[in-house]
Amino acid sequence: MKKISLITGLIAFTLFSCNQKAKQKDNLIEEEQQVENKTELLQDKIHFSEEVLMQEFISLDNKSINMQQILDINRGNVVVIDIWASWCKDCIKAFETTRQIQQDFPEVTFVYISADKTEQSWKEGIGKFNLNGQHYYIPNGEGMKGSFGKSIDLKWIPRYIVIDKDTKVALYDATEKNFDDIRVLLQKLQ
């Protein structure tokens, strides 16, 4: 009887171990696939899609401008695009660091794109938080969930995108946790 119990236990342990190894292998395959997908996504982001380039924004002087025009205006300059909103606590906390980056890299152009719900909130936020740079507003209160947000896979703000002097995307998906990466990249791009 003890032998049968022992054999049954060994079989159960073996089956459990094999099942765990299979799960680990499946997890590794899934992780490798995620890395491959992310790499493909980043390779595709060297240039903005046509959808992103045609996105319309409102400038401070109340004129319509699209992303392609913003990039053309800044061709020859390294650009940090900061997507923010005046209601976003993480954005507000990050402004101190972005101001420091602006001081450390005065030749870098900062483009602020607001995801605020109203133009009034956007304009008040610029003054309230002392944001220096070019300013644009995602129209119609679309914010993060509208066509622009969807076209750049916007899931979180603040979101930073770094553009090189040739208007190619050098860093596509950075948050406030990536400030060190942004600094290193800006040094390389000068």
From TrEMBL:
The keyword Coiled coil applies. GO terms for biological process: cytochrome complex assembly. Residues 46-190 form the Thioredoxin domain. Pfam families: Thioredoxin_8. It comes from Myroides indicus. One of its GO terms (cellular component) is cell envelope. One of its GO terms (molecular function) is isomerase activity. Keywords: Coiled coil, Cytochrome c-type biogenesis, Disulfide bond, Isomerase, Redox-active center. This is Thiol-disulfide isomerase/thioredoxin.
